[in-house]
Hints:
By secondary structure, the chain is an alpha/beta fold. Helix content is 52%, strand content 17%. A 4-stranded parallel β-sheet has the order 2-1-3-4, sandwiched between helices.
Amino acid sequence: MMKTVVAVYTGQGLADPLKAVFKELLPDCRLVNIIDDSLIGDVVQAGQVPPGVARRLIQYFHHGEEIGADVILNTCSSVGEVVDDARRLIGVPIVKIDESMAAAAVSYDRIAVLATLPSTLAPTMRLIQKQAEAAGRQVTLVNGLAEGAFDALVCGKPEEHDRILLETAKRIADKADVLVLAQGSMARMEPKLKETTGKPVLSSPRMGVEAVKALLENAEQKQA
């Protein structure tokens, strides 16, 4: 029987890249996308997740359950903490796209978190800290806010976005053992950042889909 994954997006940018990862890793899966790009706009404007965004997001998770999702994938790191509350309300497993990435990151001592928005940087750093505590690890987190990069992207200047991100990575690389990309949309920069800094780089899209795949396979084994 075909499995269904419902992916919930707060913006347009990651839908096509993630679709390609699903096609590679879960080709027989029915992928349903729910996209509301007003969500990230409201988060950026507020500088945090306002109550209205949390309510709408949880409603989309409910919709995912009604659609028949076997797993729901939350694709946005800025709103990941809403998932902690939603998991108590939704009868379907919800995967945070960046949870596996954060768990992998805490095997390193000094972790630089690259982000283009403070509203993504802060929750990603909190998630990594939480994973470190769960693993009994003490880690040092390095702030890698690439100021101006998000505005450049919004204004249709992807080259400027990439330049600012690279400059930020070079500036903080000596303070870190690994670079973590807080936004899934940055994943395309992973090879360039590795090459430029010489440091390992972790991004969330592939690891998030791998987590979904593992959940589906575990559920199948239990049913067998």
